[in-house]
């Protein structure tokens, strides 16, 4: 099924007319893809992207990715990310984490299916996904994008992709170069061509400033680029799933820091010293206060081990104790206590921002509480609505992440001549990457569903509804949820095992009737034979009697 897209001969190249027709399509805006590529003009150069949101000073993709990575190191965020990655990527030593499903493609031979599955296993092996799948998915989720360089042997392209190397998302980005010209009739600027490529730049950090070196231009055919699918409000910049958590995590950090500071400042009981200074002038009153403070803080202690006398100073700051002068006519020198903070055990505000953080990451809040997490491990009917929403979110992440395998598989199959690009474009919506789910929870869920269906069927049979108000076919389709293929398979298996119970009973009754008929026929035949034997005996006796009379 493989076809060549062009013919090269004596330095000339012949291609399909389809590409020329596509280039003739005119528009005043370039084609927009959800890949976050920066647009530059043909005469311009590459510029960075700038983003500032909620106090975030990330001026380009590099600083934005570094911001996401810093946020991911926070304990609450790391716990939420681990829940997401563990739910998305599951596997064991006995089986692979992912496999390729081609059952939906009708016009595909078995030999090509086998080759595509082998190439898919080769892609999984080059990525070392069975061992590093958790790290690859986490890197893609945190950065919001992931890049792979596809290494091939230029002297032998039909050998396919030889190696897949990951590129740091902070050092590379996609660029689209747009060429425009003015329409002589309307005067509008028309986009004539759009060239896509990647720019790889080593960035050296000096303090808080990143200096850009010379960039390397890479063809899109040599790259595999998959994003999170999320864009900012301008629909031009790719953001990570952690972008929504930037503001809640900053608020949570400030609340935690302020809580610690408040507890350190308000936890101890502080003393208030009212010192009677009489009618002393202001200067002498201050000196008198300092002398009393120094005398109170200094304490001579005899050390019995060394025989020395040391000065054990009580270093007390003004935050701990208050020293206040009191003039003559007051109550004299007095020492009182100032009570500490009374609401030190209240952390409702901290819990509020934690719930807000988990909500921004689409993780159920129940997973934050250890007591509620234990209830999730029960029956499938006990799983709440948040867990169902979380599972749908995981399914969307898996579908987006599958583009990594499909992009590499597409380029590898085309290089090896297994399929053509036109074949892939017609099949891509039917090619599915299946992820291994948690065995225990999948088995528990399927068992619960089957049990409920069987109980419903048993209730209908006990009420004599099947065959009276509902047909067997309706029950199989709507109660047991069997499709046409399952119904045919079940009927073949039942007939192979001896038929249905009712048919077995009918066949037994028919056999009994046949036995009775056979027995009746045998009895009649035996009676006829007996009659014939008796007739023969009578004839013989008559012949003997006649012979005796004549003699």
Structure description:
This protein is an alpha+beta fold and 551 residues long. It has 4 domains: 24-242 and 361-437, no CATH class; 269-338, no CATH class; 443-499, no CATH class; 507-551. The chain has 16 helices and 18 strands. It has helices at 17-23, 61-72, 75-88, 110-127, 129-143, 246-266, 282-297, 348-360, 370-376, 385-401, 403-415, 421-427, 439-462, 472-478, 484-496, 501-550; strands spanning 6-9, 12-15, 38-41, 98-101, 145-152, 161-167, 172-182, 189-200, 203-206, 209-212, 216-218, 223-227, 270-278, 300-303, 308-311, 321-327, 334-338, 432-435. Helix 4 packs across helix 5 and helix 6 runs antiparallel to helix 8 (348-360). The chain is elongated and about 185 Å long.
Distance between the termini: 109 Å
User: What's the overall geometry?
Assistant: elongated
Helix content: 40-55%
Number of helices: 16
Low-confidence segments: 19-24, 42-55, 206-210, 315-319, 373-378
Outline the secondary-structure elements:
Layout lengths: L5 E4 L2 E4 L1 H7 L14 E4 L19 H12 L2 H14 L9 E4 L8 H18 L1 H15 L1 E8 L8 E7 L4 E11 L6 E12 L2 E4 L2 E4 L3 E3 L4 E5 L18 H21 L3 E9 L3 H16 L2 E4 L4 E4 L9 E7 L6 E5 L9 H13 L9 H7 L8 H17 L1 H13 L5 H7 L4 E4 L3 H24 L9 H7 L5 H13 L4 H50 L1
Parallel strand pairs: 3-7, 13-16
Antiparallel strand pairs: 1-2, 4-18, 5-6, 5-12, 7-8, 8-11, 9-10, 13-17, 14-15
Helix pairs in contact: 3-5, 4-5, 4-11, 6-8
What's this entry about, in short?
With 551 residues, the protein is α+β, with helices and mostly antiparallel strands. 46% of the residues lie in helices and 19% in strands.
């Amino acid at each position: 099924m493989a076809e060549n897209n062009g013919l090269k001969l004596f330095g000339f190249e012949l291609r399909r007319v389809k590409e020329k027709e596509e280039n003739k399509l005119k528009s005043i805006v370039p084609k927009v893809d959800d890949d976050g590529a920066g647009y530059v003009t043909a005469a311009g150069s590459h510029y960075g992207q700038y983003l500032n949101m909620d106090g975030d000073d990330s001026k380009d993709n590099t600083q934005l990715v570094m911001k996401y990575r810093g946020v991911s190191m926070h304990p609450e965020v790391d716990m939420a990310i681990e829940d997401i990655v563990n739910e998305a990527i599951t596997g064991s030593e006995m089986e692979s984490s992912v496999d390729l499903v081609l059952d939906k493609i009708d016009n595909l031979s078995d030999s090509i299916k086998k080759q595509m599955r082998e190439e898919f296993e080769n892609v999984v092996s080059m990525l070392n996904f069975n061992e590093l799948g958790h790290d690859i998915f986490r890197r893609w989720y945190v950065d919001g994008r992931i890049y792979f360089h596809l290494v091939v042997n230029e002297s032998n392209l039909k050998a396919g992709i030889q190696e897949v190397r990951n590129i740091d998302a902070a050092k590379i980005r996609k660029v689209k170069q747009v060429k425009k010209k003015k329409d002589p009739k309307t005067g509008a600027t028309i986009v004539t061509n759009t060239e896509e490529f990647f720019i790889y730049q080593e960035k050296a950090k000096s303090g808080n400033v990143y200096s850009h070196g010379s960039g390397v231009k890479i063809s899109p055919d040599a790259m595999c680029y998959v994003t999170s699918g999320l864009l900012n409000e301008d629909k031009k910049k790719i953001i990570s799933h952690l972008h929504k958590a930037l503001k809640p995590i900053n608020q949570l950090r400030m609340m935690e820091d302020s809580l610690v500071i408040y507890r350190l400042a308000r936890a101890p009981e502080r003393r208030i010293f009212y010192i009677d200074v009489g009618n002393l002038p202001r200067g002498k009153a201050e000196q008198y206060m300092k002398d009393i403070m120094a005398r109170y803080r200094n304490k001579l202690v005899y050390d019995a081990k060394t025989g020395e006398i040391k000065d054990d100073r009580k270093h007390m700051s003004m935050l701990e104790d208050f020293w206040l002068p009191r003039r003559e006519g007051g109550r004299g020198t007095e020492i009182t206590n100032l009570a500490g903070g009374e609401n030190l055990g209240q952390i409702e505000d901290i819990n509020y921002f934690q719930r807000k953080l988990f909500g921004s990451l689409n993780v159920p809040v129940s997973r934050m509480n250890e007591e509620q997490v234990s209830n999730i491990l029960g029956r499938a009917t006990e799983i709440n609505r948040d867990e169902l929403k979380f599972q749908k979110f995981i399914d969307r992440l898996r579908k987006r992440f599958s583009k990594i395998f499909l992009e590499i598989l597409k380029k590898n199959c085309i290089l090896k001549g297994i399929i053509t690009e036109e074949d892939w474009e017609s099949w891509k919506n039917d090619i599915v990457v299946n992820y291994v789910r948690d065995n225990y929870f999948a088995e528990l869920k399927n068992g619960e569903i089957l049990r409920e269906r069987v109980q419903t069927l048993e209730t209908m049979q006990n009420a004599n509804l099947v065959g009276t108000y509902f047909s067997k076919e309706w029950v199989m389709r709507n109660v047991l949820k069997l499709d046409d293929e399952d119904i045919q398979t079940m009927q073949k298996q039942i007939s192979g095992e001896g038929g249905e119970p009712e048919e077995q009973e009918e066949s037994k009754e028919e056999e009994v009737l046949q036995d009775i008929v056979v027995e009746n026929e045998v009895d009649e035949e035996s009676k006829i034979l007996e009659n014939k034997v008796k007739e023969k005996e009578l004839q013989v006796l008559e012949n003997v009697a006649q012979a005796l009379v004549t003699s």
